[in-house]
Specification:
By secondary structure, this protein is an alpha+beta fold. It has 2 domains: 162 residues, NADH Oxidase (3-Layer(aba) Sandwich), CATH 3.40.109.10; 58 residues, no CATH class. The protein has 11 helices and 4 strands. Strands 1-2-4-3 form a 4-stranded antiparallel sheet, sandwiched between helices. Helix 2 packs antiparallel against helix 6. The chain starts with a helix and ends in a 6-residue tail after the last helix. It comes from Aeromonas diversa CDC 2478-85. One of its GO terms (molecular function) is oxidoreductase activity. This is Nitroreductase A. Belongs to the flavin oxidoreductase frp family.
Length: 241
């Protein structure tokens, strides 16, 4: 196993950080790695906001669901889908298409993954913050985002102050298929995975609980998922057609 694969397979979300700063050189390399990600049609539809104002960090931590590590991490980056820059370059640009939002979201995720992997290669850790989408209109206002810019998620980075256990992933046979989608889900494999997840949650050192993966899915998908999102996106000029 080479070092890159080993790094990827050892991923953990880090939510507790020491007070040590990330050096300017490290941050520069992390951002360079982010910008080296693939970009659909080379549109480069992502803007990254580095949040250094403590008051703004605290505000975003609250908006993201009272997640203190947003304020405490050495660095907090916000990844935004951005077609405002393209509008400045080409005022006649046709925007507002659903496909363009998909492109922006995919490009932003690729950049963020590059950034996190680069950070992890330096002994740093991080966690993605999708909670910024809990109150997207307030985040847009707090970050002074113009039309055709929308916050996708945040990324906390810093020196880890914890080493959580790695969560078991779904069995490969439930995720990777050949040529066609299977006619039936392998229920035996799913049942075994549910048992594995119950054992994992009960044995881990922090936040022990009794829950299967199927139970978690029922809990999350059994309720509305940010039903305000479409209106917030349209307000910023997305999903118009």
């Amino acid at each position: 196993m080479n070092s890159v694969v080993e790094l990827i397979l050892n991923h953990r979300s880090i939510r507790k950080f020491t007070g040590e700063a990330i050096s300017p050189t490290q941050l520069d390399e992390i951002l360079a790695a982010a910008q080296s990600a693939a970009s659909s049609s080379f549109l480069q539809t992502t803007t990254i906001l580095r949040i250094t104002d403590p008051a703004l960090r605290a505000r975003l931590a609250t908006l993201a669901g009272e997640q203190p590590y947003v304020a405490d991490a050495a660095e907090f980056l916000v990844f935004c889908v951005d077609y405002h820059r393209h509008r400045v370059v080409a005022p006649e640009a046709k925007t507002g298409f659903t496909e363009q939002l998909l492109i922006g979201a995919i490009d932003g995720a690729l950049m963020a993954q590059n950034a996190l992997l680069a950070a992890q290669s330096m002994g740093l850790g991080g966690v993605y913050i999708g909670g910024l989408r809990n109150h997207p209109d307030h985040v847009v206002e707090a970050l002074a985002l113009p039309q055709e810019v929308f916050p996708l998620f945040g990324l906390c980075l810093g020196h880890p102050a914890q080493q959580p256990e790695r969560k078991p992933r779904l069995p490969r046979a439930l995720v990777v298929h050949e040529n066609r989608y299977p006619a039936r889900l392998d229920e035996a494999l799913l049942a075994q995975y549910d048992a594995d997840m119950v054992a994992y949650y009960q044995s881990r050192s922090r936040n022990q609980k009794s829950q299967s993966w199927s139970g978690q899915i029922r809990s999350i998908l059994g309720k509305e998922s940010r039903p305000f999102m479409q209106a917030s996106l349209q307000k910023q000029g997305f999903l118009l057609k």
